[in-house]
Specification:
The chain is mainly α. The chain contains five helices and no strands.
């Protein structure tokens, strides 16, 4: 009787945990969904990598901007230069205000985000997979 428990039988029970049966099921699923998995995986990986790069570039630009501000303020404090911050603020607003309403608002941010998405997903076969990967990369 104990030999019957461990011997292989000719009929395979799908719930028996027989590895050969599981591999057949997995292979059939993979072969059926292979194009979708390939596109989603490639696009997702590209999105994830793009987000990691964007985060690093953003941090670097923030560091450079902060360093420039501190340097200017040190020169102002020492009396070497005078800075018209109101004029600089207006110049920056003029550049970043996409709808020309005089203020940098959520609409402007949305317009910039649309430009970035269009740029990053041009000719990508699966832009939704890219977007998922990009969001995951920003969260990491």
């Amino acid at each position: 009787m104990a030999a019957g428990l461990f011997s292989s039988s000719s009929s395979s029970n799908p719930n028996s945990g027989d590895p050969s049966n599981n591999n057949d099921d997995l292979n059939s699923i993979l072969s059926h969904y292979s194009p979708l998995i390939q596109q989603f995986s490639l696009s997702s990986v590209l999105g994830y990598c793009s987000a990691i790069s964007a985060k690093r570039i953003g941090k670097t630009l923030a560091f450079i901007g902060g360093l420039a501000f501190v340097s200017l303020q040190a020169l102002v404090h020492q009396g070497y230069i005078s800075v018209d911050w109101k004029r600089i603020e207006q110049s920056v607003k003029d550049v970043v205000d996409t709808d020309q309403d005089g203020e940098f608002t959520e609409k402007d941010v949305q317009r910039y985000w649309e430009r970035v998405k269009l740029f990053l997903t041009q000719n990508i076969p699966d832009a939704s997979g890219f977007g998922v990967g990009f969001m995951l990369g920003l969260k990491s």
